[in-house]
Amino acid sequence: MIKCVKKVVDFSASIIALLGLAILCFGIYVLYKQVGLNYSDLYFNTADWLKTLQEYGFIILGIVIMIIGMAGIDGASKKKRSCRKFSLLIYQIGALIFFILCSSLAVFTLVYSNDAFGKECTGTPYFETIDSQIKLADQLFCSNQCQCYITQETFDHNQSVFAGKNYTTDKNVIEKIEQIQKCPQYEVDSYAAAAQMMQAAETILHCTGWCTPTSYYIFSDINDDSYDGQSCFKETKEFVESTGKILGYVLLGLALLFGLNVLFVILLCCQSERKHRTDYLMYET
C-alpha cells in the first residue's frame, strides 16, 4: 500500500516538476519576445520594480512549481527520516496552496467565463480606459513626435492608411520604430492598461484597438500583416468564451492532482512516524 502511495507521489511530483519546467520555458520565451537579448531595455521602459517583476511572472511561477515538484520527488525517494519529512513538508505546503488556487480559478472560470466581458465594450470603466489609451497611442504613433518605420511592402499594401502619417521606409534608418513602446515620448504610466493587454492580444489574436479597431498594430509590430480587421474586445471575448470551459476543466484536474497529493503525503508521514515508533519500542524492549 505505502509503496503504491510513494509511486503515486513520485509520479505526481514529476508531473508537477515538468509543468513548472514548461511554464519556466514559456516565461523565458515571452521575455525574449518582448525585450530580445537586450535586457537593459526592460528596465528603461519600466516605471518601477513591481512592473519589472510582472515581466518575470511566468519565470518565477515556473521555478516555484519546479521546486515543489522536486521536493515531492525527493521526499518520496528519501530513506533518511529527517530529510524526508522536510522535503515532504515543502511539497505538502506547495500542493495545498496550488490546490486552493487551482480550485478557486477552476470554479471562477467554469462559472464566469461566458460573462467575463459582458455584451458591450462601452460602459465598463476599465475597458473605456484601455480604449482611450489606445486612441492616444494611435495619435502619437507615426506622428510628428514619433516617426514610425514601415517596410516598402507594408506601404504598398496600405498606402491610404498611411496618408498624412509621419513614417519612413528607409532600411538604413538608425532606429526602426515599429511599436509605440519605442517612441521617445512614450510614457509607461500613460498607456499601462492598454500596453499590458494589447501587445499580447495583437500578437496572439491578430486584432487591433479595443472597442474600435485601429488601422494597424500599435503595440506589437506595425509591419505584421496578420491583422484580421476585428477589435480586440470582440476577439478576446470570443477566445475567453471558447476556451474558458476547457481551461476550467484543466484547472479542476490540476486541483484534484494537488489535493490527492496532500492526502498521500499525510499517509506517507503517518506511516513514517508509525514505523519510527515501532522501531523505537523494539529497541527499548
Automatic annotation (TrEMBL):
The keyword Transmembrane helix applies. The keyword Transferase does not apply. The chain crosses the membrane at residues 12-32, 56-76, 88-112, 246-270. It is found in: Membrane. Keywords: Membrane, Transmembrane, Transmembrane helix. InterPro entries: Tetraspanin/Peripherin (IPR018499). GO terms for cellular component: membrane. It is a multi-pass membrane protein. This is Tetraspanin family protein. It comes from Paramecium pentaurelia.
